[in-house]
Amino acid sequence: MSTSRFRITGARSHITSGDLGITTSELHDLAPAPPARPAKPKPVGTTRPRGLPRGSFEWDLTREGYTERWPTLTAFQQWLRDECNKNCIELRVHKKETNTPTEEHTWVTKTTYVCTRKGTGGTKHYDRKTDREFKIASKRLEDGCKCCLTIKSYPRMDEILGLYRAEHTHPIGDLNIIYMHVTPEVRMHMMEMLRMRIGADHVLRSIQEDPTSACRDVFRAPVPSKRAPVPSKRAQEPHPSKRAPEPQPSKRAPQPSKRAETEHAPAPSKRAPEPAPAPSRRAKRDMPEQNPIDMVSSQLCPATLSACPISSDNLSRDVNMLITHGFECVDFRTDLESCGGCGLSDASHVCTAIDGMSSVSCVSGRCQVNACQRGFIPSADGELCLPVLD
After folding, report:
1. Phi-psi region of 144 (alpha: psi -120 to 50; beta: other; left: phi over 0)
2. pTM for this one?
3. DSSP assignment letter at 281
4. Distance (Å, rounded) from C-alpha 68 to C-alpha 152?
């Protein structure tokens, strides 16, 4: 029996969208949606803790090494002055940053200080005109200085944190003084004393004796001005005058006779010598004794004024004692009521209230009558004007 292969065909098991007369997108819309997956419940009490905000107070204190702390900005400024004075260095602002308001406002300002031997950066506005060498080299080092101080302030806090690297690549102390500046406060104090005609030596001594002055202000010595007048090289030596010599007295002129001198000489008095009057405490001083007063006044007061102590108990002529206890510059021609405290103890010590006086002065805190009016004569001690008796 012969066999043959055959295939049974029937209806198609796969139906396309074209058979149904719809598009593919409409067929996807008719398809049932997949079942939704159930949400996993969150475990209670297992939330991961959030870390410290970067740049915050706690972050800088624990991770960035900001170990220096000051309660306020004023306390930091005082510490900075003391640190510079102790080590004879200068720290100046190099950069200042301000944090922009963000979602996490962790800090407000950030200021960086550097040593002046490194330089604060920037472009110089002055163009050097000469290549001459100076006795003191430039303060800026080629490799700079490693010393750096960074401080930060934080929102809603007065406390300041700081990161301080105190290592220097140059000597500090007395060897660094020549590279420092005089502070503005001491500079103003020096200018005020110089306006009062106080000598440079006394100004320097008063600054050195002040314990609050900075190191540079203490060790700085007065330097003569480079603009001081110098003798001209073109000045010529004086030549002898071409004028005729003045006539000199003749050596043969008649001399007074010694015999005439002996004949007309007054005979010595036979009366007993009168005792010399006792020196008055208020008498006017002679010129050698007044010179120290004038010298002190020229150093402490302008040319037309004289220096007198404020208190009559302190009548010292030393410049340092007058500066310590207080003095005032008085014009004897106009102000005769407060010199040396004349009017402090009693109103009768006012020099202008002396009866019959026409000229009066104040010498070392005491009234001295120079001249009296008509009908009056000065007393022996120079204190009063006595009426002339008819």
Report:
1. left
2. 0.42
3. T
4. 11
